[in-house]
Each structure stands twice: as structure tokens, then as C-alpha cells.
Amino acid sequence: MLTNFLSLLFIELIGAGEETSANTLGWVFHFLACYPQVQAKIRQEIQQHLGSHKLTFELYETKLEYTKAVIKETLRLRDPVFSNARCCLEDCTLVTSNGDKVVVPKGTNIYLAHNLIHEDAQLWGNDAQEFKPERFLDASVSIDPYKYCPFGAGQRSCIGKRFAELEMVMCTVKMVSNFQLQLPRSHPTKTLELPEVVVFTSTIGECHVQLQNINA
Length: 216
Ligand code: HEM
Known about the structure:
The protein is of the alpha+beta class. The chain has a domain at 24-81 and 130-213: CATH 1.10.630.10. Helix content is 43%, strand content 12%. It has helices at 2-34, 36-49, 57-62, 65-77, 114-118, 121-124, 161-178; strands at 83-87, 92-95, 101-104, 109-113, 179-182, 210-213. β2 and β3 (101-104) form a beta hairpin. The longest helix has 33 residues, at 2-34. Protoporphyrin IX containing FE is lined by residues 12-13, 16-17, 20-21, 24, 80-81, 84, 150-153, 156-160, 163-164.
């Protein structure tokens, strides 16, 4: 019994806690290689707030808004947990965006397609498909948790959200402080084909990023 419980816990933490962040960071590095101007802004932000100092928790909490926006935008377009499910505990009626009513009986399983919600032009505008971290910079615009839900929403949302956000910022700062990321000449393509069915958001082919040490 205890062994089963420990195995499940281990699988949950590795699957939920490791693969998700690793997958997202892979996409962050791909986008940074595709958009050198975004990478330059992160480097500028690091130089402005950190200089040669190490990233502290206080700096993380109060600064690096652009770096955080890059990670949020990556999670919007390449959400590793691209769908989620809920079981309806009582009969209810949903109203669609064009006013139609859909009756959902008790016991129905509902699948929420995060990736479709995150790319919906009605929610995000006509540039919904574009990589634009700036959309997360305007503090006056509060983002509805059901419009942007990489960590789920409600009582059962991701328990590791804060940890994941922190580790992804730390890794990105470390990477951009030390390396210039670029698309290699052998694989210059910005558009990677996404498979239809995956566990985490991966590519059909390989994702290549070339690193050049900028401190050497
Ligand atoms: C980019 C990183 C991550 C993403 C996108 C992510 C996403 C999610 C999502 C969508 C859920 C389901 C929430 C729901 O049903 O509403 C979830 C649940 C969960 N996540 Fe994460 N997660 C991430 C990182 C982590 C980390 C680092 C940990 C642990 C160290 C973690 C542990 C968990 C656990 C234990 C649950 C189940 C919570 C429950 O059922 O009450 N996750 N995560």
C-alpha cells in the first residue's frame, strides 16, 4: 500500500512537476532563438536589475517583468498541459459566446482545450497566434483565469505554479546571461510542426537551438 502510494506520488511529481517545466523551457529557448529582439530585451532587463549579482527571491518578486511575460506568452502558445478535464457534479447550462445554451447533464465529462482557448481571437484579438510577450505587461489589464489557464483554474489548479514560475525564470536568466541563442543555419525554420496527439506539447521534428557563449 505504502509502496503504491509512494510510486504514484513519484510519478505525479516527475510528470506534473518536471516534464511540464522542462517542456515549457524548451519552447522558451526556441522562441528566444526565433526572436532575437525579445532575447535582447531580456538581456537588457537582467543587466539593468541584476548586473553581476545573483538573482535573489526579492528581485524575482519585484523585477524582471519582461522575462516573466516571455514565459507567460510561451505558456499561452505552447501550454504543455494543453487540455484538462472536469466531471459535472450537477445538471447545469452553459451559455456559448454567441448566446446558445448547452445543457450539460450531471456526470458528463468535459474536456477543456487550453490550446484553443489560448488562441481564440475573440478573447485575445486578431494577433492571438503571434508571439507577443508585451500583451502580459499591461498591469491594468487583468487576465481572466478562464481565458488564460496553463495552470488550470479553481480549487484544483496546479499546486506547483509558484515553484514552476520561479524555476523557469531562474533558468531563463541563467541561460540568457551566459549564451546567445540562435537558430542554427542547418535548421533555420521558425515554424515547427505540432503533432495532433501528444502528452505534452512537442514537435513532430526536432527543435534545434544553437548556443554561443557570450562570456568567453
Ligand atoms: C510549466 C509548469 C506547469 C504547468 C503548466 C502545470 C499545469 C498543471 C495543470 C493544468 C494542472 C491541473 C489543474 C486543474 O485541474 O485545474 C496541474 C496540476 C498539478 N500540478 Fe502542475 N503544472 C506545472 C508545474 C508543476 C510543478 C513544478 C509541480 C510540483 C512541483 C506541479 C504539481 C502539480 C500537482 C501535484 C497537480 C495536481 C493538483 C491537484 O490535483 O490538486 N506542477 N498542473
